[in-house]
Amino acid sequence: MAELKALLFDVDGTLADTEADGHRVAFNKAFVEAGLDWHWSVDTYGELLAVTGGKERIKFFVSDFLEDFFVDGDINDFAAELHKRKTHFYLEMTQNGDIPLRTGVERFLREVREAGFRLGIATTTTPANVSYLLKATLGEESLDWFDVIAAGDIVPAKKPAPDIYTYAMQQMNIKAEETLAFEDSENGILSSVAAGLKTVITTNGYTESHDFSKAAIVLDQMGDENDTFTVIAGNAQGESYLNVALIKKLFAE
Ligand code: XBP
Ligand code: MG
């Protein structure tokens, strides 16, 4: 059996709880600025998360949630323009420190780096959203912790397609058999598993009812010594927070 060498992390929902209090808020700010009378509530946004990608989500809203809204011109241009402003507001929020990392994420990242694992990011979100979040939460130098930040439109088919994971592994020159993925959602695990990756799930409010039957383990958070995880499915092998010992055991299973 291959040795565990690399770890690939999703961002939204996994490293940080970005959706309800981050992306959703930024979308709503862009709608107000554009003079649209749209407002995505926490519940509506949960339904919209079925589609990954902000521009794709706007188009999904127009096609499936609105009855009498017609775009003057190309819907792709309309969504791209609106999304550009949404990204502006989201970046502003990260810079203001409004979006913290989830419990245990910083500790775990420092621990796995120390242990010599290679790290990468595989996410659907816009690349700048990732670099701004990392800089704001872990400092400028944290960008160098990751061999690749695979994000957004770099692949045309977003999650649940495997493409972003496959791309990240190609860039890092690593094989799926020596890599573990970290995800929070059904679209995320569909993507990572289709790319051949064993996957650790940490759930959040939007994803706790998703199907994670293919996960190596399902936890409510990475957790810390003083704020331990709850195991939703799988065997935590006596560990109470995500650490190097546990990922090695999960990988070897
Ligand atoms: C994340 C997404 C993204 C974010 C918003 O999914 O689907 O669209 O919600 O970011 P995952 P953008 O965690 O599975 O990668 O607006 O920049 O797309
Ligand atoms: Mg996610």
TrEMBL record:
Highest rank taxon of the organism: Bacteria
Q: Which residues form a coiled coil?
A: none
GO MF: hydrolase activity
PANTHER family found in the cross-reference section: CBBY-LIKE PROTEIN, XYLULOSE-1,5-BISPHOSPHATE (XUBP) PHOSPHATASE
Q: What is this protein called?
A: Phosphatase
